[in-house]
Amino acid sequence: MHLFETSPWRDMKLLLIFVIFIFSNCSYADNTHQFYEFRTQISLTKQVFDRWDLNVFTSQNANLVDKTYGGEHAPTNIQNYFLVGPTYKYSSNLNFVFLGYIYQKTNPLFDNFVNENRLFQQVVYSSDFGFGRVTHRVRFEQRFIHDKAPEQKFLGTRLRYQLGLLVPLQGEELNNGEFYLNTYNEFYFITSGVSGAIYNENWAYAGIGYQTAKYGRFEVGPLLQRVVVDKHDIRYFNLLQFSWSHNFD
């Protein structure tokens, strides 16, 4: 018996749940705010040992609209993000990050910036699903946060679950020189620390990508981030996301 049994019926149910959650981000807040940003991200992976890869990921969010919020203009550079994840490949479908590191700085050009250092553990499981590949990613984070306004430091933990689907658009398998569809939905749950809600963030994305022979994958698409500050304040970040990912063989 395989470690993880798969079946078309199980994957169909998961895909149905995935689609429902993507389109169910309705607002229940008294006050909502819309933001528009451009996000670039780069993911580079290199095999370092027989079963071990090293992944380095970085992203940056830039404001697209000259808009004030709370009496201040939003900065051009909204957020910088950096991740290092040593990845253990148990099989072609299953991998683990036993201990990874993330650094994030929000509002880096303002005095009231927020520094965040995180440790994380992660499990990723993928399976073929007829016309595409379904990926499940579970990540648990330990967050060390330094908020400059007001001046405070605190520790929190968060659980994230991402359900993704990659579909080749020019055949049953994705080959070099072909386009593909990539879509995912990620749910964020605060398990300890300061938060206005337990289920406080949701990221929904759908993009078109192209796989090259030498330079990895290039991808672009809209990303909607829904952030719950409290039950009276929900913020929607509408982003155009551009991605480059490359695996150095």
Walkthrough of the structure:
13% of the residues are buried. By secondary structure, the chain is mainly β. The strands form two sheets. It has an eleven-stranded mixed β-barrel. A two-stranded antiparallel sheet has the order 3-4. The protein has one domain (39-247): Porin. The chain is 6% helix and 67% strand.
Strand and helix map with partners:
Layout lengths: L7 H15 L8 E17 L4 E12 L4 E2 L2 E2 L3 E13 L4 E13 L7 E16 L2 E17 L2 E18 L9 E15 L6 E13 L5 E14 L2 E16 L1
Parallel strand pairs: 1-13
Antiparallel strand pairs: 1-2, 2-5, 3-4, 5-6, 6-7, 7-8, 8-9, 9-10, 10-11, 11-12, 12-13
Keywords:
mainly beta, two-stranded antiparallel ribbon, Porin, 1 helix, disordered N terminus, 249 residues, eleven-stranded mixed barrel
In DSSP terms (H or I, runs of 4 or more residues), the helix count works out at 1
Helix percentage: under 10%
Q: Please tell me the overall pLDDT.
A: 84
Tally of separate domains: 1
Task: For the record, give the distance between the C-alpha atoms at the N and C termini, rounded to a whole number.
Answer: 31 Å
Oligomer type: single chain
CATH fold descriptor:
Porin
Low-pLDDT regions: 1-6
Order of helices and strands: HEEEEEEEEEEEEE
Query: How would a crystallographer describe the biggest sheet?
Result: 11 strands, mixed, barrel
Number of strands: 13
Radius of gyration: 19 Å
Q: Could you tell me the strand content as a percent range?
A: over 45%
CATH class: Mainly Beta
Shape: globular
Structural class: mainly beta
Strands of the biggest beta sheet: in what spatial order? Answer: 1-2-5-6-7-8-9-10-11-12-13
**How does CATH name the architecture?**
Beta Barrel
